[in-house]
Write a sequence for this structure.
C-alpha cells in the first residue's frame, strides 16, 4: 500500500469537495495509493498503472496491470479497467415520482468500460505485450464517479433515500463484478485513521 503525505491528502480532499469544475483527471493522480482497494487484493507484483491510456479502441481512464496470486498459488497477469467521472457528477436522476435512473455521465462510463474491456480482450498484441494468457484475465474493475453528497440532485432526505434505493437495485441487478465507487470511498481508503499521523 502506498501512503500519501498529509499535503497530498489535503489536496485530494479539496479536489473531491470542489464544485464548479469537473476534475477527474486531477483526482486520478491519487488513485495509485488505492490500488489494493480497487483490485480487492494486494497484487503479487504491480506491472503497470496507466492513466488516460490511448489505444485503438479509445482512451481508457485507468488501467491496472498486475500479477495476482490465486488462492491455490498460481500467479497470473491481469489487466483491470476503471472508468472515471468527476466527483462533481451525479449517479442518478429523477425518472418518475420515486424512481431514479442513471445520469448520462454514469451511462457513458458504463458504455465506455464495456467497449474498452471487450475490445482489449480481442487484442492479441495487447495480451502478448503484457503476458496475459487469455481474455478472462482482462476485466472491468468498475467506475469511480460522484461523491456521497452527489448521489442525486434532491431537495429532501426522503428523495435521497429513494435515490439511494434505486441505485442499490441497479447495483444488485447489474453490477455483479463491477465496483461502483464514489470518490469518497477512495479518500477513505487513502486517508489514515483518526489519531494516526503520517
Amino acid at each position: 500500500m502506498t501512503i500519501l503525505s498529509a499535503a497530498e491528502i489535503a489536496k485530494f480532499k479539496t479536489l473531491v469537495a470542489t464544485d464548479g469544475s469537473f476534475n477527474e483527471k486531477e483526482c486520478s493522480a491519487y488513485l495509485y495509493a488505492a490500488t489494493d482497494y480497487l483490485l480487492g487484493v494486494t497484487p503479487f507484483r504491480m506491472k503497470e498503472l496507466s492513466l488516460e491510456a490511448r489505444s485503438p479502441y479509445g482512451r481508457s481512464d485507468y488501467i491496472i496491470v498486475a500479477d495476482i496470486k490465486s488462492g491455490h498459488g498460481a500467479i497470473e497477469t491481469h489487466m483491470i479497467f476503471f472508468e472515471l467521472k468527476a466527483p462533481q457528477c451525479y449517479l442518478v436522476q429523477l425518472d418518475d415520482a420515486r424512481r431514479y435512473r442513471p445520469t448520462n455521465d454514469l451511462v457513458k462510463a458504463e458504455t465506455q468500460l464495456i467497449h474498452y474491456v471487450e475490445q482489449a480482450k480481442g487484442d492479441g498484441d495487447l495480451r502478448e505485450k503484457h503476458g496475459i494468457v487469455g481474455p478472462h484475465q482482462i476485466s472491468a474493475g468498475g467506475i469511480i464517479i460522484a461523491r456521497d453528497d452527489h448521489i442525486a440532485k434532491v431537495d429532501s432526505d426522503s428523495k435521497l433515500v429513494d435515490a439511494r434505493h434505486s441505485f442499490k437495485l441497479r447495483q444488485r441487478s447489474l453490477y455483479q463484478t463491477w465496483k461502483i465507487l464514489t470518490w469518497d470511498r477512495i479518500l477513505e481508503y487513502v486517508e489514515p485513521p483518526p489519531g494516526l499521523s503520517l
Notes: The chain has seven helices and seven strands. Residues 6-190 form a domain with the Restriction Endonuclease fold (CATH 3.40.91). The chain has one domain: 6-190.
